[in-house]
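In this section we walk through a basic example: taking a raw amino acid sequence and producing a predicted 3D structure, encoded as discrete structure tokens. The instruction is simple. Fold the sequence below.
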Amino acid sequence: MQDQAQVSDSLFHAGAGTAQVVTLLGLIPGFIPSLALTLLISAILIAPIVIVGLAVALIAAPLYLASRVIRRTRRRRQRHGEAPSFRPVAVPTPHIS
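The resulting token sequence is shown next.
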């Protein structure tokens, strides 16, 4: 009894034919190394930007949230006619002539 493998032209999953594509791209001299180098350089350039962006977001988010809460409470107090929670203090300024 022999096992006969059936070959189909249809794609079974998203990775079908990947090995064939890599083999065909290998026929172009230097394509795979240049592609790998391009991906490496772009990852090195993009990764710090993403990391800095996440750090800024993590630092700025609590400050932004606090400012929103403060503004919201001030608006509510103004709407309801409540007195402010602090008294403004006059700051003396020197007279310049």
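Looking at the output, two observations stand out. The chain has a mean pLDDT of 79. Residues 47-78 form one domain. In the next section we compare this with other chains.
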